[in-house]
Amino acid sequence: MTRQQQAVTAARDYRAANAAAIVCSLAELVALPNISRDLVAVRRNATALRSAFAARGVTLDLVEIDGAAPVLTGRIPAPKANRRIGIYVHYDGQPADPAQWRSHPFEPTLYTAAIEHGGRPRPLPADSEEVEPEWRLYGRAAADDKAPFIALLAALDALQHAGIEPSSEVVLLFEGEEEIGSPHLSAYLRQLRDRLDAEAWLICDGPVHQSRRPQVIFGVRGLVSLELTVYGPLHELHSGHYGNWAPNPAHSLARLLASMKDDDGTVLVEGFYDSTVPQGDAERAALEQLPRIDDELRHALGLAATEAGNELLAERLLLPSLNVRGLAAAGVGDAARNVVPATAQASIDIRLAAGNDPEAMLNLVTEHIRGRGFHVVGDDPDERTRRTHPRIVKVTREPGYPAVRTPLDVPIAADVLAAAEAAAGEAVISLPTLGGSVPLHSFTEVLGVPLLVVPMANHDNNQHAANENLRLANLWYGINLMAALLTMP
Ligand SMILES: [Zn+2]
Q1: End of a domain among 357, 381, 401?
Q2: Of 358, 373, 401, which closes a domain?
Q3: Distance from the alpha carbon of residue 178 to the mean position of ligand 1, in angstroms
Q4: Whole-structure pTM value
Q5: List of E strands, 113-218
Q6: What is the predicted pLDDT for the residue at 435?
Q7: Which of these, 8, 29, 316, 429, has the minimum number of CB atoms within 10 Å of its CB?
């Protein structure tokens, strides 16, 4: 048996003997309110985590930039380690409105199954009571993202109990502002760069695959957005007296938007796809292996067809997208009036793929708009400007951040996948990119090492919504995973 296999066995045995205590320790951590903007509450979480790790001989420094939630950083000592990896977890959570929750978000409650599948609340287990893997602990941040802390602590206990030494030294970084966009992460990484000297960073966050199979994710999409306002007459006009004469900004905006994308979903902005890093052989092979979920998704969503001739969702996520996220001009339905609107607005988000520079992508779209004969302004145009230019659009850019994509064949990838497989006892999915956007680029930009996302939570955890929950089987996997990562060959 390899040390890793011994470690996973030890994790399983330890968990079987201590399941009730492990669930209660998660409940205790979830009971601490942790909404990102509540600095006092967030700091309390940091202190609790520091004590929990100190009790296992892991000293964490609390580092604080003025006005920001602190980060915790330190190392899990491993005197004979043959490698050094980084583990990142965040301890803050999304806001939670108790009125929308079945049980209070910060009074963690154990249910016998998912609520929507008839799960009933039950007391936390007493010592040595049997604990079912399908039970779920409900509470804010149970899944996103407090589960990895408990998994790591339990794995440390299990290894210590079995007398197994870690073979990976682990650098820890725990953040308290992830749910508000990590505004100080870059600054913290810069400040702590010398101490964060891992060969790769493992981001412990997010869900496993919808099929419940574990996955390792090699990237996230980036994001930029822009607001467009097209101008008509200085004020709304009666459509009987002036329709057919006064240009209508809604039509004008509709034509502009239509020019950006063809009927099949291909973006027509010149150069839009040019900077995207093409898929390599390893990515193509990974896409081949993904469980086929597209038909089921189309069915569930009531979609007769999807873009690009039903091309796979996982492939579409590797390209940048241009999405109209909202439209407005005068009123519709009960609010409809017979007017020529004075303005029309569209809100657009652009998801970025690997290689896309956020500013450059916004420039391409702006150039496209100019190419359609619009006079582009950055502020509301004055009357003189409106009298001079027949077609005016105000473009307001919201700066964003780039994507991250780690090549699937970086040396550490095989070891992390092997660790996840040892932990899960089944094949693990390699997902080239997460659909969502997460500002992880600062890790690769500042630290210059590869980054992999190693999730453990169930996909149906209601992340960010009411009734967030963690399925205990996923916590059990997480404990095995941490034990396997600590003992990578
Ligand atoms: Zn999260």
Answers
A1: 401
A2: 401
A3: 7
A4: 0.89
A5: 121-122, 136-138, 168-175, 201-203, 215-217
A6: 87
A7: 316
| CA 102–ligand 1 middle distance (angstroms) | 22
pLDDT tens, residue by residue, 397-431: 998 999 999 999 999 999 999 999 999 999 999 99
Q: Compute the distance from residue 163 Cα to the ligand 1 centre, in Å.
A: 32
CATH of the domain at 353: 3.30.70.360
Q: Which residues, other chains included, contact 259 with Cβ-Cβ below 8 Å and sequence gap of 6+? A: 268, 368, 372
Residue 94 CA to ligand 1 center (angstroms) comes to: 9
pLDDT tens for 239-297 read: 999 999 999 999 999 999 999 999 999 999 999 999 999 999 999 999 999 999 899 99
Contacts of residue 304, defined as CB under 8 A and 6 or more positions apart, other chains included, come to 298
Identify the domain containing residue 254 by its residue range: 221-308+319-401
Residue 272: what residue type? F
Domain assignment present for 24: yes
Ligand 1 center to 457 CA (angstroms)? 10
DSSP state of 207: B
Contact 342, 392 (CB under 8 A): no
Indicate the number of domains in the chain. 2
Residues 419 and 392 in one domain: no
Q: CA nearest 76: which of 161, 187, 186, 157?
A: 157
One domain, residues 194 and 285: no
Same domain, 132 and 186: yes
